[in-house]
Amino acid sequence: MKKFLQEFKDFINQGNVMDLAVAVVIGAAFTAIVNSAVSDLIMPIVGAFTGGVDFSDMKLYLPLGAGDSAIAYGSFINAVIQFVIIAFVVFLMVKALNKARSLAKHGKQAQEKEAPHCPYCLEEVAEGATRCPHCTAELPEPAGFTAKA
After folding, report:
1. What is the pLDDT of residues 20-43, one digit of tens each?
2. Phi, psi of 131 (to 5 degrees)
């Protein structure tokens, strides 16, 4: 039992588990913000364009059985709008992250040097070579490293 508890403790202390826990908590908070934005900001604007229609109150009442059985399709419309907003925000975040990674990668590559290539066959040659080992052409000058663009 002691070994089991130690394994569980090691599992919980892994970085990815903690990252996932933080992501769930932040996601729940973000969901509350999006719900508020949709119901308090966006839907009134949509309602103004649709003649004051409030989607959240839209229901299709079913004549089956006793009680107020209804399909709340207005709530579904709100949920779809919330999903689209969340998807758009996640898209913007991923796009910004990819751009930042790209800038970091290109900045790092600018410092790296590119191996010399033969001007005739474009194959890589050793630094200082005077003849290409691939096409056997004589190089105009000894091959040297150049900065990557």
Report:
1. 888 888 888 888 887 788 778 877
2. -140, 140
Distances (CA, A) of 113 to 104, 129, 142: 16, 17, 16
Angstrom CA distances, 34 to 43, 84, 124, 128, 144, stand at 12, 10, 54, 61, 57
Q: What is the pTM of this model?
A: 0.47
Find, among 83, 34, 77, 79, the residue nearest to 59 by Cα.
77
* Residue ranges of domains in the chain, CATH in brackets: 2-111 (1.10.1200.120), 113-149 (no CATH)
Query: Of 71, 69, 89, 70, which Cα lies nearest the Cα of 81?
Result: 89
For 105-120, write each residue's pLDDT tens digit: 776 555 567 778 888 8
